[in-house]
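Thanks for the sequence, V.! I ran Probable endonuclease 4 right away. Repeating your input here for the record:
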Amino acid sequence: MPILGAHMSIAGGYHKAVRAAHAAGCDCVQLFTKNNNQWRAKELTDKDRAAFTAALTELGITHPISHNSYLINLGSPDDELWRKSIDAMVIELQRAEALGIVSVVAHPGAFTTSSEEAGVARIAAGLDEVHRQTPQAVSRVLLETTAGQGSNLGWRFEQLAAILDAVADPDRLGVCFDTCHVFAAGYAMETDKEYAATIRALDKAFGYKKIAAFHLNDSLKPFGSRKDRHAAIGSGEMGLEPFRHLLNDRRFKQVPMYLETPKGEEDGVDLDVVNLTTLRSLVG
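Predicted structure:
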């Protein structure tokens, strides 16, 4: 079976995210290590770390990963924001290290008032500086595929490849494949032939083995819209077939997959439970 989980809230403590994941029937969990809409971060305590690690062990939740702050933009041409983003990314890696989290998912960045080429170079230089400041870190950054909204980079596989080619130490980077984003970016996955063509394009760009995590989300917006709006599995524009192909692709059997779908309940049942049940029904 695929390794399936979801993004969970850390309200009340990091261990709460693990317990919520277990309650929903997850195998793995994603979380923020700080408020994702603030630059400042509350200090991590030994108690935080111990409770988080103990919950993972006790409940058998594996592959914990984190997502970085949405404020970070390593592609910014603005020097002040760029440096602030580097400092914040260093902290994200340090917090992940402290919690025993091996991967930090990050949107590559937006070039805003510059150009795609300048944005790629800026992101690569920013990542090199982050790596320079964290030489012993085991945790690595996973560049997430994006929908391509505005000037966000990473919506074409070739853009991710360009960043990986430009950094000094590409072995310290991986890729997180977001289904909604890839669909919104214009990569078809509904038929066997379309799915095969999309994975072939990805493999040609940077190699499918670079994928270290998946975000499983349907899309509220149509194919090729370049709009980032997540929907419950099978209730958006994608339908179930792309997920069926992905979940039965043996190449990704050991790669953890995390829901980032809307939270809530349906007929009194937690939506994460509903989505996980739907996904597991597609296997085999």
